[in-house]
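Notebook, p. 212. Picked up where the previous page left off. The plan for this session was modest: take the two constructs that came back from the sequencing core last week, fold each one, and keep the raw output in the notebook itself so nobody has to go hunting through shared drives later. Recording the first one now, exactly as returned: residue sequence, then the structure token string.
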Amino acid sequence: MPSLHPTEFRVPPVDAVALETRAAQLATRSLKKAAKVQGLKLAIAMMDLTTLEGADSPGKVQQLCGKARRPFPARDDVPSCAAVCVYPDLVAIAVDALAGSGVQVASVATGFPAGRTDRQTKLREVELAVAAGATEIDMVIDRGAFLAGRYGDVYDEICAVKEACGDAHLKVILETGELQAYDNIRRACRIAMLAGGDFVKTSTGKVSPASTLPVVLLMLEAVRDHFLATGRMVGVKAAGGIRTAKDALKYLVLVNETCGDAWLSPQWFRFGASSLLNDVLMQLEKERTGRYQRPTDFSTD
């Protein structure tokens, strides 16, 4: 894509009080039994299970892929997760482990999590991950360039990464905890969407704060407004700090109330929170049996 004029990156100021009040109001909504069970299953289907540690091994990735395929082997009504996200050198392992399952293989790239490397290296990393079979790429934006006001550089880099992705979907990680202000988050969303990103994502999970209800509400409003202006749908991924089924349901309420039913799909909304899965499974069993299971009834990976 050609570079854009700086005026294209302008966004209206965010009313922080109104945003936070709206998020708090929506968080009070409660779901009754049938809707709650449906929501919990949908949350599982939207999860990207992730392992992004220096100690990652082929065995750990294979175990995580098994859990993504069958999160609760004793129950056939529990769906598979959306994706497994790994470092580029482990993509081939995940591809083999997930063959025929419908679970996507995602890979972080572009110098995750800091993004402090040159563009040629970033693009090469993307190309290698896609060549190994990754169907989704999670890139980090250059927060240094963004906070210095070099929005055109951020846009150009996302465009280049999108091209390197080929047919793979691109999730653009904003690292909202480092952007410092709602106005910055709104502008980063606009840049990512104009550059062709398929998803905007809150966080790498390595920085605090990560995902919060007001931030995700703001991002949902951004993708909704982009759709109304252009007709192109963009997804949102809430990643980092989401650990309970109760929290996951709050995010689903945000999606429904802000963007509508069309976004209530793994194609358009994701959770990046591996620690969330077991709590959701425990809640599902509680709804079925009337009592809580022990945490040790579920695998830890």
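Okay, moving on. Second construct, recorded in the same format:
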Amino acid sequence: MTSVAAHGRPELPATTSRPVRIGSEHDLRSTLGGLSGVDAVGLEARAAKLGTRSLKQDTKRAAIDLAITMVDLTTLEGADTTGKVRALCTKAMRPDASDPSVPPVAAVCVYPDLVDVAVRTLGTSGVNIASVATAFPSGRASLAIKLADVREAVAAGATEIDMVIDRGAFLSGNIGKVFDEIVAVKEACGAAHLKVILETGELVTYDNVRRASWIAMLAGADFIKTSTGKVGVNATIPVTLLMLEAVRDFALETGAVIGVKAAGGIRTTKDALKYLVVVNETAGSRWLSPDFFRFGASSLLNDLLMQRTKQATGSYVRADRFSGD
């Protein structure tokens, strides 16, 4: 694995020009028609095999710090308060108040109406401010409302937008609508980076996940993201592996390097390290950076901090030492 990313805001590269031109729904269908079918048995076998890899102690320590820098620390509850967001931002900047050597996380993710609280709290710390938008998590709203949602978050200071695709449109075959909405949201983002949430647990098949990944990338996504964390099935290693294959192949074909965010259900250091192995073995070391891989998992951070302390001292500490999320 590569060395741990430097402290400070991850500078996501601007989306490069893409040789693949989508001028019509016919072009889109033609491009998607060229994708191979997914060998589900082979995919799951490879994911299972990679999940058995072990890391040497020195590599494990570096990997834990790297994983911390990849976390999007998130609160997306109806009961969120300004105080809760301030506490989350404080933890994002200084995950372990007693240890300044712990790196900050990649971003704090909140609803649009709380972005300004995050902006005031994070200041110039370098931690990104992400906001969910487009009628998260259902995506059931008109395009005008979705774009207003995005513009509100960006105007308040969000540097990253996490949008949801219209799964109903996708599953009914209206892929042109899905594509056009992503294009419109990307434009509304301005300088903010766009993460497109596929909600893979609702896409039914691996072939659908591959197709949705390519639609999002062709439409201008800076990241493709597995899940909202609000459905029964969220990130899994096979699905994340498949999405990593998609961004790898897209980079080879177009030159554009797109990130992947695995969100929902990743709670332990052991699981996070499995994902990092999958990233390295599938897409390559370039994706071992918060620029191109993220975890959407707030409860994961505490376990990473506990395991980091264990690696340094040889003993565990109380979980409440890292409270504040």
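Notes on construct two before I forget. The longest strand covers residues 128-132.
Flagging for discussion at group meeting.
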